[in-house]
Structures are given as C-alpha cells and as structure tokens.
TrEMBL record:
Identification of the protein by name: UBC core domain-containing protein
InterPro entries associated with the record: Ub_conjugating_enzyme, UBC, UBQ-conjugating_enzyme/RWD
Residues in coiled coil: none
Organism of derivation: Panagrolaimus davidi
Gene3D superfamilies: Ubiquitin Conjugating Enzyme
Highest classification ranks of the organism: Eukaryota, Metazoa, Ecdysozoa, Nematoda, Chromadorea
Domain UBC core, chain residue ranges per copy: 10-80
GO biological process: protein modification by small protein conjugation
PANTHER family: UBIQUITIN-CONJUGATING ENZYME E2
Top-level taxon of the source organism: Eukaryota
C-alpha cells in the first residue's frame, strides 16, 4: 500500500493491525476500506440502525490519519 515517505512506521503498524482486525471481525452496521491503496485514508460506511430515525440510511465518511497516529486522531469528512 502506498504512503507518503514522512509517515511513521508505528502509525503504519497500528493502522495495518486495526484494518486487519476490522476486516476479519467486522463491526455490525459498518464497513471499512482503504481508498486508492493508501493505508492512511479510509472510507467508512455506516448503516442506519433499525428502530431509529436513521433506519434505512447509508452514511459515508472519509478518515484521514496523521503521521503521528495513534497519538493524534484522524480527520473525518462526512459525505452526504
């Protein structure tokens, strides 16, 4: 997977482990994929839970992880 050269190896290891875990044991109501084979940019799909105002909805977000992840949080962009 491609990544800018300035990104730390500890951030890459953390993201690889988290992505592998989410793909092998998915969380109900969520999907996670990497965008353009870049480990530091994820696309998240959220399905509206039954019995709520969001039921039947599908919400998409992009997560961009910083080089010092997990010590700094990802940026989030919600796509409507």
């Amino acid at each position: 997977m491609s990544h800018p050269s300035s990104l730390s190896s500890s951030a890459m290891r953390a993201l690889q482990l988290e992505l592998k875990s989410l793909q092998s044991e998915p969380v109900e109501g969520f999907t996670v994929t990497c965008d353009d084979d870049c480990l530091f940019k994820w696309t998240v799909g959220i399905f509206g839970p039954p019995g709520t105002l969001y039921q039947g909805g599908y919400f998409k977000a992009t997560l961009k992880f910083p080089p010092n992840y997990p010590y700094a949080p990802p940026g989030t962009i919600y796509l409507f």
